[in-house]
Amino acid sequence: PEYLSKNIQNICCIGAGYVGGPTCAVIAYKCPDIQVNVVDLSQERINAWNSDNIPIYEPGLSEIVMERRGKNLHFSTKIDECIEKADIIFISVNTPTKTYGVGLGRAPDLTYVESAARTISKVAKTSKIIVEKSTVPVKAAESIINMLKSNQKPDVEFQVLSNPEFLAEGTAISDLLNPDRILIGGEDTDKGQWAIEQLSKVYQHWVDRSIIITTNTWSSELSKLAANAMLAQRISSINSISAICESSGADIQHVSKAIGADSRIGSKFLQASVGFGGSCFQKDINNLIYLCENLNLKEVADYWSQVILINDYQKKRFVNKIIKSLFNTCTNKKIAIFGFAFKKNTGDTRESASIHICKYLLDEGANLNILDPKVDYDQMMFELSNPQLNLPIDVIKNKVQLFSDDVIEACRNSHALVVCTEWDNFKSYDYEKIYEVMQKPAHIFDGRLILDHERLMSYGFHVEAIGKRLNH
Ligand code: NAD
To answer: CA angle at residue 298 from 296 to 302, to 5 degrees?
Structure first.
């Protein structure tokens, strides 16, 4: 049949965000014979993708976009038109956590996935492969299929695949170019298997068939939630050990090295820190907990809840350490916050640990000078004025300043500097000079273990670091 003999020539991606943008840029770069249209409801975001100042900072992304844009990579708000032309449609819309609802687990809000599926069902006049790229709860594909069927025209067929994205922000382009694996889940029918093969062929333009894992749809959906839950769990595990280090005199960096040398454990993701952030880990664990509750698996839900609990505890523990060192009061003391993004090499601030550190310090009456090379003022204001933080707007306006690179001005007259993000350039600052412009005693709180603590102490700083008891 015509449907089964189709060759993939045109891809449409709904959602021009942190996943849709970089993923499609790489597909366009590696598949010059495929036309790739990235569409979004937000005209502002699309305008930015079509400008010299693309909306997302990722090392290597801008170069690829500039090379393919206008050739086989297009950004537009013409959603209906691009859906109709496509053989494959990626759904890469946001799936935030609901801020309301009953129960302990926080359900994912599938409004945007549903509206994307609704649009496809209304607009599509020819058969399509629909790919879930967004992270969704298990069985979301079933809802998408039901939605699509409700409007299905005669002779139009939809195959829905799950193809979760495993890229990490900050290394998105290299992750997309050299993925550990590609996971594709589909229906266990001839048509389902055919659709899986079609999507595999796209990836095989640059990845080896041997790393493409194919499963049924539900295994694929669950694997994404489980992968993020296990990554976050590793961070909470090492952070829980960091608390023991600070109380006992053990050194978390030595402990991490000793643990990681065991090949069964491995050394990655064992860096203690002020806690994980970002738009995914907490959301996806909440999603998993919600799923467990719905399946009556209370003990399993309780197990994963601890990962979030330890993460919150780590941030509070760190702030308490700061307050205690500053003679138990931060009122009107200036504190320099190094980093507002949730990790290095990204401008993304969603759910960053730094936001929570800033919130707790503002509650204590501190004045903050935030230093981040990739975050702009509006974005910082947007995050700090989130109603959930409950910070009065005049407090934010009067007590917070943002600096992009002037570290001396950011630190002038401050009592403490607090490292919240592991940006590489924070390592090479002239800390002797910084010490001179700070109030004395001058404190450093290293929440990312990136600084040379011995050297800082030799300049006169009082240094505290996650997972260490430093001898002053
Ligand atoms: P994002 O908020 O950056 O982008 C989503 C975009 O979708 C927005 O620009 C929004 O305007 C658009 N959109 C929403 N509904 C739409 C509709 N009906 N039609 C057209 N456009 C619509 O989100 P993101 O960070 O790219 O994440 C997308 C999904 O991928 C989420 O489910 C997330 O969990 C998952 N994911 C994210 C990452 C990451 O590192 N950010 C990694 C892997 C997976």
So the answer is: 150
DSSP 403: E
Give the pLDDT mean for 44-55: 97
| pLDDT reported for residue 54 | 97
- DSSP states along 122-135: HH--S-EEEEE-S-
For residue 379, the tally of other CB atoms under 10 A from its CB is: 18
- Quick check: is 24 catalytic? no
CA–centroid distance, residue 286 to ligand 1 (Å): 17
Residue 155: pLDDT band (50, 70, 90) is confident
Q: Give the 3-state secondary structure of residue 186.
A: strand
Give the per-residue pLDDT at 42.
Answer: 98
Segment 405-423 shows an average pLDDT of 98
Ligand 1 pocket residues where CB is under 6 Å: 14-20, 39-42, 45, 79, 92-95, 112, 115-116, 134-135, 165, 167, 169, 279-280
What amino acid occupies position 450? I
**How many CB atoms are located within 10 Å of the residue 2 CB?**
8
Q: How far is the centre of ligand 1, averaged over its atoms, from the C-alpha of 134 (Å)?
A: 7
* Mean pLDDT score, 437-462: 98
ipTM of the complex: 0.98
Residue 134 annotated in ligand binding? yes
**If you measure from the C-alpha of residue 461 to the centroid of ligand 1, how many angstroms do you get, rounded to a whole number?**
43
Please tell me the residue having the least CA distance from ligand 1 atom 10.
15
135 labelled binding-site residue: yes
Residue nearest to atom 4 of ligand 1 (CA): 17
Q: 451 with 432: CB under 8 angstroms?
A: no
- Atom of ligand 1 at shortest distance to CA of 19? 26
Q: What is the pLDDT of residue 213?
A: 98
- For residue 304, how many C-alpha atoms fall within 13 Å in the half-sphere facing its CB? 28
Exposure b/e, 91-108, CB count within 10 A at least 16 = b: bbbbbebeeeeeeebbbb
- Kindly give the pairing relationship between strand 88-91 and strand 128-132: parallel
As given in the structure block, the two tokens for residue 456 are 């800082």
3-class secondary structure, 267: coil
CA distances from 314 to 128, 183, 236, 331, 470 (A): 46, 33, 8, 23, 19
**pLDDT reported for residue 103:** 52
Model pTM? 0.94
In order of their start, the domains of the chain are 2-207 (3.40.50.720), 216-472 (3.40.50.720)
* Predicted local distance difference test score (pLDDT) of residue 102: 53
Whether residue 419 contacts residue 444, with contact meaning beta carbons closer than 8 Å, is answered with yes
Please tell me whether 215 is known to bind a ligand: no
Q: What is the pLDDT of residue 149?
A: 86
* 208, burial (CB in 10 Å: exposed 0-12, middle 13-18, buried 19+): exposed
